[in-house]
Amino acid sequence: MKEPGAILLVACYELGHQPLAVAWPAAFLEREGYAPAVMDVSVEPFDAERVRRAKLVAISVPMHTALRLGVTVARRVRAANPACHIAFYGLYATLNASHLLAGIADSVMSGEIEAALVDLVRKLERESGATAPAQPLRVLAKLEFPAPSRSNLPSLKQYARLEREGRFELVGYVEASRGCKHLCRHCPIPPVYGGRFFVVPVEVVLADIRQQVEAGATHITFGDPDFLNGPGHALAVARALHEAFPGLTFDFTAKIEHLLRHRDRLPELARQGCAFVVSAAESLNDTILAHLDKGHTRADIETVVRLTAEAGIALRPTWIAFTPWTTLEDYRELLDFVEAHGLVDAIDPVQYSIRLLVPPGSLLLESAALRPFVGELVADQFYHRWTHPDPRMEALHTEVSSVVAAAADRRDDAALTFQRVRELADRKAGAAPRPLVAPDVDRRRAPRLSEPWFC
Predict the structure, then answer these.
(1) Which 3 state secondary structure label does DSSP give 416?
(2) pLDDT at position 131, please?
(3) Average pLDDT over residues 176-204
(4) Less Cβ around it within 10 Å: N or C end of the chain?
(5) What is the pLDDT at residue 393?
(6) Does residue 139 lie in a domain region?
(7) What is the pLDDT of residues 338-396, one digit of tens each?
């Protein structure tokens, strides 16, 4: 399969950034003499001609949204090119292997898959294009990373921008580590990585940053599940970035407990260009946090809000606003907390609609706390149903989701959407809704990415 286009790598959705989950496999394949084609259906049309030339189509599914889109892509691939081998790879591939291998995919793999993907290509060559045995593959082997191959990907201009002080800037995306050493029960990473993580050499990360800066990026997102899993490595990467590109800013994701543990490093990270940090706070209810095995408490969240502000780093907490254990009072308290701590502009309104996702293989399925609420697996949508014991919360979720989606379509001010969500919650609780107040359009807002976060 050395002829150009015989291998097609497909991205479906990666939170609005240029797909690293395609760029890295492309680099591994190119290092072995292959010439893969790439396609990102989140920003470009499905190209049937590229599909017809392919002997292997590998579809990246690092998240739930990507998987649902990927299945649609796979069906179109099969219709256009029935003889090609279709592989799914990424976090959600092996979690849903039984469904994918029942007529959608020929192989699935998760974890550190790049070398395994090269092996699959070689196997298909040896078998003269015959379909390889369908065996789910979970790979946890250390890799020798090349710099990701981005030259054939759509331009950074087609992806999310950084909104900062009224400007929109191009954003690059890198990973300094993969996997995670923690076992949060609702997260798709632990069933695949089992508490392991792998660092990417500093020089490889820097090479990837450099090529994106040359393409126009003025800000870099570190997409590591937790940038501070290896704090020494993270600091070395941040220092190298700042030394090479003093004007470049960045953001990263880290657990609340890591931001607490490494509080002394926050001022230095700010000096090196950290503009904001994303942290999965999830809930203010300590019982819910324990059910999720998050490793932090409400008091910890409050401390991190203070620490990041003191360091000059904007905190952008994310939430699972609807769980089987979240009461209406919890939900309203979350909204009050967001307002009281000046976080309204730091939270994309979609966060107020996020519902606990329980995919196949989730560690939550082992939880006695979830058992009374969880229902059947919806195999073709890749999640287990669950029902809230309070019908008001089910209704509120539906209403909030509708309001948030409509506001996003209109590009409404986040502060106005927040007030509308709070009005819904107040009405559901039988409380008098507070009057809507027009937000100050000239207020200073923390930097944010133009693509709202969701899974």
Answers:
(1) helix
(2) 58
(3) 96
(4) C
(5) 98
(6) no
(7) 999 999 999 999 999 999 999 999 999 999 999 999 999 999 999 999 999 999 999 99
Query: What is the extent of the structural domain holding 211?
Result: 156-449
The strand pairing partners of 137, in sequence order, are: 109
My answer on whether 230 and 110 are in the same domain is: no
Number of domains forming the structure of the chain: 2
Using CA of residue 286, residue 287, residue 288, residue 291, what is the dihedral sign?
positive
Segment 77-96, tens digit of pLDDT: 999 999 999 999 999 999 99
- Does some domain include residue 406? yes
Same domain, 250 and 344: yes
Q: Are residues 123 and 196 in the same domain?
A: no
Residues 284-310, mean pLDDT to the nearest whole number: 98
- Asked whether residue 144 is assigned to any structural domain, the reply reads no
Alpha-carbon span 196 to 180, nearest angstrom:
6
Residues 196 and 164 in one domain: yes
Which residue in 300, 249, 248 sits closest to 279, CA to CA?
Answer: 300
For residues 53 and 165, membership in a common domain is answered with no
Could you give the 3-state DSSP secondary structure of residue 64? Answer: helix
Please tell me whether residue 230 adopts helix, strand or coil conformation.
coil
State mean pLDDT over 22-45: 97
What CATH number corresponds to the domain at position 11?
Answer: 3.40.50.280
Q: What is the mean pLDDT of residues 325-345?
A: 98
- Residue written as token pair 């196949």: 360
How far apart (Å, rounded) are the C-alpha atoms in residues 397 and 391? 10
Task: Report DSSP letters for 96-131, one per residue.
Answer: THHHHTTTT-SEEEEES-HHHHHHHHHHHHHTTTPP
Question: Which residue in 347, 350, 349, 370 sits closest to 358, CA to CA?
Answer: 370
Stretch 13-33: mean pLDDT, rounded? 96
Residues 174 and 120 in one domain: no
What DSSP letter does each residue of 334-384 carry, written as one string? HHHHHHHTT-GGGS-GGGGG-B----TT-GGGG-TTTTTTEEEEETTTTEE
How far is 36 from 58, CA to CA, in rounded Å?
Answer: 10
- Sign of the four-CA dihedral 103, 107, 66, 214: negative
Q: Which two tokens stand for residue 325?
A: 């254990």
- Say if residues 294 and 256 touch (Cβ distance below 8 Å): yes
Confirm whether 106 is domain-assigned. yes
Give the residue with greater pLDDT, 360 vs 453: 360
Give the integer Cα–Cα distance in Å for 309 and 295. Answer: 22
What pairs with residue 107 in β-bridges? 87
pLDDT tens figures, 121-168:
999 998 865 555 568 999 999 999 999 999 999 999 999 999 998 899
Identify the pLDDT of residue 56.
97
